[in-house]
Amino acid sequence: MKEWKSAKATLIWVVLATAIGVPIAFAAGNEQLAWRGPVYILAGFAGIIALGLVLVQPLLIGGYLPGLSAYRGRRAHHWIGGALALAVVIHVAGLWITSPPDMIDALTFASPTPFSPFGVTAMWAILAVALLALLRRRLGLRLRTWRLVHIPLAIVIVAGSVVHCLLIEGTMETISKAALCAAVLAATIKLMVDLWRKRTLRGESS
Fold first, then answer.
1. How many CB atoms lie within 10 A of CB 106?
2. Most buried one in 6, 54, 142, 198, CB count within 10 A?
3. Rounded CA gap, 185 and 39, in Å?
4. CA 127 to chain centre
5. Residue 73 — pLDDT band, cuts 50, 70, 90?
């Protein structure tokens, strides 16, 4: 029994590492990088890493990753949220440096590219969550209030990030990109269903 649990735990971590690592590896081997500048490449990979972190977040808060206690999972969720915000800032700043007019159009929702509004919407939602997390104690937000704000923003982040990624035809390989996006959606949906079930059980017990 212990061996099965250990093997299952190892498999979960391997699958997670594969889901995030394979798209990064394929992107690193893309021939298009030969014609890209270092700042643009950094910005692109920051975006890929950000999507990988979006996958990790619901897994942490849902307690789906073995070997992590609920406390450690919440702490990791907090710090990875900060890393996610930083990755997004690097992504946007790098693209701004390489092409300010395009970024101005994107940030003002005037860009003709279909993926831009989804990415910008997800960006603002990520930054909003990060800012609220920093100011939560000062604002006196209770856990219930925090969840009422955080969960809708998290849904916006996931939906916007996935659509943004899928619509971009860039350095990411198609199949591994789609698999990563599907994993993000699956993890988020599972978390939402589990949270809904817990609330339903609490309501019945009360």
1. 21
2. 54
3. 29
4. 12
5. very high
Placement of tokens 């509004």 in the chain: 117
Residue percentage of the chain with pLDDT more than 70: 97
Length of the chain: 206
Q: Render pLDDT for 23-57 as a digit per residue (tens, 0 to 9).
A: 999 999 998 898 899 999 999 999 999 999 999 99
